[in-house]
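Technical note accompanying the year-one report. For the benefit of new consortium partners, we illustrate the data format agreed upon in the data management plan: each record pairs a sequence with a structure-token string. No post-processing was applied to the example shown here.
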Amino acid sequence: MRIIPVSFLLMSVFLLANACRHTRSNTEKMDYSRLVWSDEFNYSGLPDTAKWGYDTGDGCPNLCGWGNNELQHYHAGRSENARVENGCLVIEAHREKTGTREYSSARMVSKHKGDWTYGRIVIRAKLPQGLGVWPAIWMLSTDWSYGGWPESGEIDIMENVGYMPDSVFGSIHTRRFNHIQGTQVTKGMYCNTLATAFHDYSIEWDAEKIDFFFDGQKYLTFHNRHEGPDAWPFDRDFHLILNIAVGGNWGGQKGVDTSIWPQRMLIDYVRVYRK
């Protein structure tokens, strides 16, 4: 979940879904027919600890503000910030002082409980809205075998910032391709119902490429150039991260509206398929 510029190719997409539905999405492709991991959130209470853990705190001392000057403290096992209800995972950010931070939130991780090399990963979600929100659905290396960030890679399946409420972005970061050098690979999609309807955010990832989809429409492909891990560290296990950050270098670029909280991201399901 790194900083990316805002000059992107934007394309119009529309979807009428407006409620949690536990039916097979017509965007799920049949060539990825083997379901290997999922959470349908057909229960209530705290998220399933067999499938989810948490990143906690404010990132200090090494990455205060999680490397992006973010304003939230992440909690674990706290229903105010992460819970399952009405068939959805709810990740909720509040304006409340925690330690040195003015906001609380949750950062759910599947690390060591759901880790994959290759597959089709589908997350159906409804996003928060308002100036200062920074929700993300993304992936990091599980074992960091090629080194720290960005050497071991990052896959941003979906990022959104509150001052661009009708745009979502998919991105890739590696040692060669990253925002610090201005070489990251990024593209955006336009949709005016991100906070009012559920949409599918997905990737198809194999040894040759990573395709990014919004509601089944492919909008970005990152190819394996076969030039080593500096360009393609994506031959190792990665895990999922679901979170709402507050403010930060990108999310807070236009400020933070202190009157909009709490804000929530709803996750209808997470499904991982293999061919």
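Partners are asked to follow this layout when depositing records. Residues 3-27 have pLDDT under 50 and may be disordered.
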